[in-house]
Design brief:
- The complex is a heterodimer of chains A (325) and B (361).
- By secondary structure, chain A is an all-alpha fold.
- In chain A, helix 8 packs antiparallel against helix 11, helix 9 crosses helix 13 and helix 12 crosses helix 14.
- By secondary structure, chain B is of the alpha/beta class.
- Chain B has three domains: 89 residues, no CATH class; 121 residues, Rossmann fold; 131 residues, 3-Layer(aba) Sandwich (Rossmann fold).
- In chain B, 45% of the residues lie in helices and 12% in strands.
- Chain B is built from 14 helices and ten strands.
- The longest helix of chain B has 31 residues.
- Chain B is globular, with a radius of gyration of 26 Å.
- The N and C termini of chain B lie far apart (91 Å).
- The chains are: A mainly alpha (325), B alpha/beta (361).
- Chains A and B meet through helix 3 and helix 7 of A and strand 8 and helix 10 of B.
């Protein structure tokens, strides 16, 4: 029932958002087959400019929200987010390297920067995964959290160093990338991001009950027959994959992965069988709405969507934080 | 507290004190000087250091020591310890009418100096200087955001050309008594205006005036050549993600490249947005329907086949007149980022792209 409500919200966002934009378009012309596509401005605005954006926003929003839910439950920390374990920082390093050294390659229609971003996030994932595997028995999730924060700082420093080496025009590109954007302009990057996202969702599907038990405590979860190390690895890998896919598609977007889980928990309670799908759907709707603001508020100029998510997300998060006390 | 702990705390405190005392003397100044020049002083000679570098060195020393001294000063001299320190290290600026050792931190002013025949008086240039080839032999002293005061001081300049927003650097040079020329850039008219002002400052007024007048004549000639031709609506792209139509930055109705585009006979499709650079969505580009797209790339790293590939990326938006009529131009060159004398070259290349028939022979 609740999930159906969130589902219809997300569906409504997906259907309505492409109809709204900085330019008025005629729907009759969009679906008019008699005009060749090459000449049909309305159809191109709809199918090339808007639809990919909305789809990308839906995927990125759900990916980040899911990753946020899983990280918060896994690390038993309400401030954990998809950025916490350094996956975003790894992605940023990949992107900045690709921009600074003019990486020139593409794979299946996906250009160098998204590929480098994905590679960077997978690299960070490998480090986190290795750390978690090397973790001594009995070490708390606090150790993993601390390792993640350290890794984020370390990768952030490397990113800053690479940016230091870049020249002026590359610096501008880097700054733009770090602000985040959902204007993907084609379906190739979306298709590419779908692969890791699907893998991540397969991982998430095994988790709801395990996360409920884990959020109480690793010992009691183990006592109830949960294979804690294995479940933690699945959760870590899928949440990081989802984050990597989202960041490679849109750049780093703050707050989506941290406030959406909290909002959803406030609305539906702590049962992860509800929280996970509801967060995915609400995350989609939230980011679609933010992107709508980003592309219309200062039209024809574009506002980087990362600014919108933080400006809307920041106050909401503060309100949540102080309301609970 | 145990004895070991006390001892280690003492060692840390001692190391801190020694570090703050030694740090101002221990930086690699000598390595940055021009070989053979009188400035290649050995920095390890303290008397030389105090005589020549006192302003910079002392103020840096003061800055480092201030946290230690302040509590004492507030007891001894409660009035204003900072002012007393500053008065101690301040020296009067030396005034030279015709500077012989100029440092230019900005590529545009470097090119201007060469254009007015004063390039041989440059003692150092900024990180981003690429033109003319002579700059490759000159020491680099950092850029807009990271100027190295130390290297600048070591080159013993008698004029430093700074960007007006480099407030910190301006303050440091003023304390060191080194004259500065403040440069600020807004539109195309600033190029020749700055050239003339710089010419007066370095004592090359007539040469600078001649060079500036030559630029104005050449720009006027381009304007005349394309006048009375239909002015195509043009999208001037500064940058975007390689291989994709993402994160597109384009010229708004402000800035020297916008002005150059207007001279070259184009109408900026974003002229109503009074900003130098605008991040555009694909939707806005489709809606504005530019008749010509000029995309700028910088440096010479892009290969020809790569340029073609970048041009073909625009085919994803086939309804744009520029794409339909094959009027997407990818131009490579540093002259598009430097608002200096080479602006004539930039205007010429814009005009040829916008009005090929005016240049057809």
């Amino acid at each position: 029932m609740t999930v159906a409500g969130f589902g219809s919200l997300a569906l409504a966002a997906c259907l309505l958002a492409p109809l709204v934009g900085s330019t008025p378009i005629r729907l009759t012309a969009v679906f008019d087959r008699s005009i060749p596509f090459a000449d049909n401005v309305d159809a191109q605005i709809f199918f090339v400019a808007r639809l990919p954006r909305v789809l990308a926003a839906a995927l990125v929003g759900s990916g980040l929200a899911l990753a946020g839910v899983v990280f918060q439950a896994l690390l038993r920390n309400p401030l954990a987010s998809p950025d916490t374990l350094g996956v975003s920082a790894g992605a940023a390093l990949g992107a900045v390297l690709a921009i600074t050294f003019n990486a020139d390659f593409s794979l299946l229609g996906v250009s160098a920067i998204p590929l480098a971003t994905l590679a960077g996030s997978l690299g960070a994932l490998a480090i986190v995964y290795g750390l978690s595997a090397a973790r001594r028995r009995g070490a708390s999730s606090m150790v993993l959290l601390l390792a993640g924060v350290t890794l984020t700082t370390l990768l952030g420093a490397l990113t800053t160093f690479v940016r230091y080496l870049a020249d002026f025009t590359q610096t501008l590109q880097t700054v733009r990338w770090l602000m985040g954007s959902l204007d993907v302009g084609s379906y190739g990057p979306i298709g590419a991001a779908l692969v890791p996202l699907t893998l991540a969702c397969a991982g998430f599907a095994t988790l709801p009950r395990v996360l409920d038990l884990l959020s109480v405590g690793a010992e009691s979860a183990a006592a109830r027959g949960v294979n804690v190390p294995r479940a933690e690895k699945i959760a870590l890998a899928s949440a990081s994959l989802a984050t990597g896919a989202a960041v490679s598609l849109a750049g780093p977007l703050s707050f989506v992965g941290i406030i959406v889980p909290h909002l959803v928990r406030l609305l539906v309670g702590a049962d992860h069988r509800l929280v996970l799908p509801a967060a995915a759907l609400f995350g989609s709707a939230f980011l679609i709405a933010c992107d709508l603001v980003a592309r219309t508020a200062f039209a024809p100029a574009e506002l980087p969507v990362g600014i919108v998510t933080a400006i809307i997300g920041g106050p909401v998060f503060l309100w949540l934080l102080f309301r609970r006390q | 507290m145990s004895a070991t702990r006390r001892a280690s705390a003492a060692v840390v405190a001692w190391a801190f004190f020694v570090g703050t005392c030694v740090a101002p003397f221990a930086e690699p100044v000598a390595a940055q000087t021009t070989p053979g020049s009188s400035a290649a002083a050995t920095i390890s000679d303290p008397s030389r250091l105090i005589k020549d570098y006192l302003p910079g060195g002392a103020s840096r020393l003061a800055a480092l020591l201030l946290p230690h001294i302040l509590p004492v000063c507030s007891v001894v001299a409660p009035c204003h310890p900072g002012a007393a320190l500053r008065n101690l290290v301040l020296v009067q600026p030396r005034r030279a009418t015709s500077p012989r050792r100029i440092i230019s931190l900005i590529p545009a002013t470097t090119e201007m100096l060469f254009a007015m025949g004063a390039g041989d008086r440059l003692a150092g240039v900024g990180t981003y200087d690429r033109f003319p080839a002579e700059v490759e032999r000159l020491p680099r002293v950092g850029g807009l955001l990271d100027p190295s005061v130390e290297r600048i001081l070591s080159l013993k300049p008698d004029l430093v050309i700074v960007y007006d927003t480099q407030t910190e650097l301006k303050g440091q040079l003023a304390r060191a008594g080194i004259p500065i020329f403040r440069y600020v850039h807004r539109g195309l008219a600033d190029i020749t205006e700055t050239m003339r002002a710089l010419g007066v400052r370095v004592g090359a007024a007539s040469a600078a005036d001649a060079a500036a007048a030559h630029i104005e004549q050449q720009l006027a000639a381009i304007r005349t050549r394309v006048a009375r031709r239909p002015r195509p609506k043009t999208l001037l792209v500064f940058g975007r993600e390689p291989g994709a139509l993402r994160r597109i930055d384009a010229s708004g109705g402000y800035g020297f490249l916008h002005d150059v585009l207007e001279i070259a006979g184009g109408t900026d499709v974003l002229a109503d947005l009074k900003r130098q650079s605008v991040q555009l969505s694909t939707e806005s580009i489709l809606a504005r329907a530019p008749e010509v797209i000029i995309e700028l790339h910088y440096g010479s790293r892009l290969q020809t086949d790569r340029l073609d590939a970048e041009r073909l990326v625009w085919n994803a938006l086939p309804s744009i007149p520029a794409v339909k009529n094959n009027r997407v131009h990818v131009l490579v060159g540093d002259e598009f980022v430097v608002p200096g004398p080479r602006i004539v070259l930039a205007a010429d290349r814009f005009a040829r792209a916008l009005h090929p028939d005016a240049y057809a022979r």
